[in-house]
Amino acid sequence: MVQHFRRYFAKKLIYVIFTVFLILTFNFILFRVMPGDVTRIVIPKGAAPGSDTFERLSHYYGLDQSKPVQYFKYISQLLQGDLGESISFETGWKVGDILGPFLFNTLILVGMGTVLSIFFGMWLGRVTAWKRGKATDRVGSAFFLMFYCMPTFLFALLMLTLAARFVPDWPIRGAYSSTYYSMDWTDKIGDRLVHTMLPLFALVIETIATFSIITRSSLIDVMTEEYMVTAVAKGLSSREILRKHAMPNAMLPVMTVVAMNVGWILSGSIMIEIVFSYQGLGYLTYYAVLDQDYPLLQAAFMLEAVAVVIANFIADLMLMALDPRVNV
Asked: Fewest C-beta in 10 Å: which of 14, 103, 236, 327?
């Protein structure tokens, strides 16, 4: 068993390394096959050819050299943690320094939202599946389907409108107040909670339906298996059957969906962050597109893609632990 797991781990790790390498390569190629001169893509428009800024950035990105040299320079800089310089922020600002605060805000919002959605979504899915065909199931299923089909931005706008109408003093934009950095740590926590409440609620309500539907469907399939009938015949209580027999076997497809959503934490929820002007990574990506800040976009795409790959790698290992029958 241990040897089987080691071979499985090694195989998946090789896949992860190879996939990340392909992502980095594609990320490099993508911004060099776009129409126009690549130097005008990664160098600010105000920097005229021959100027100090133009020459410095051309040398920094290796744009004055061949494509293979540019590629190896790009990989070398990434391995050193250098993600390039932004062209929409002040001159000389490192992309890594810009991403930090936005990434932290996204981890707070989408991280908490994902955890709450997984917990309550699986709980609701379990309840509706166990009471299949009853009023609880019908009401719950209607709730899931309504929010599953509703566009994210529409519910976020509804929340924003209701808050502005009925609670006018409630902060409806931003991740924190303008006086945030002058507060002590307890006030900072309270300020963030107040600003995060509305976008967090909108995010949880929108994503909870996915986990509920998957959990319900998977659990209903499991409940028709013969070993469930055997568990009932043995005289086990409903709680024991659900906890010890049904849920462990229903977790396999649920874990796949959980991994996909956890992997997308770094990308944030772009529509919710834009509607609430919440300064997360999704919000930053949107304005990087508007400002045509390609070095910033390149770094954001890389982080989001690599996060998904790593999350799926962890999910594969968890599936292997849950079901040893998974093939190497």
From this structure: 327
Q: pTM for the full model? A: 0.80
| φ/ψ of residue 227, rounded to 5 | -65, -25
CA distance 321 to 313: 13
Query: How high is the pLDDT of residue 14?
Result: 92
Provide the β-strand partners of residue 142. Answer: none
**Confidence class for position 19, pLDDT limits 50, 70, 90:** very high
Residue 166 tokens, joined: 């009925």
- Mean pLDDT across 77-93: 79
pLDDT of residue 221: 80
Q: What is the per-residue DSSP string for 34-99?
A: SSS-HHHHHS-TT--TTSHHHHHHHHHHTTTS-HHHHHHHHHHHHHTT---B-SSSSTT-BHHHHH
In a 10 Å sphere around its CB, with 0-12 CB exposed, 13-18 middle and 19+ buried, how is residue 181 labelled?
exposed
Structure tokens at 8: 């499985």
Residue in 129, 75, 98, 47 with CA at minimum distance from that of residue 300:
98
- Quick one: which of 115, 91, 89, 113 has its CA closest to 100? 89
pLDDT mean over 77-92: 79
Judge whether 281 and 241 are in contact, CB under 8 Å. no
54-75 residue pLDDT tens: 777 777 777 777 888 888 888 8
Residues 202-233: tens digit of each pLDDT: 888 878 888 888 888 888 887 777 777 777 77
Q: Which residues contact 93 (CB under 8 A, 6 or more apart)?
A: 85, 86
Domains (range + CATH), the chain: 2-79 (no CATH), 95-322 (1.10.3720.10)
Q: Within a 13 Å sphere around the CA of 278, how many CA atoms are in the beta-carbon half?
A: 35
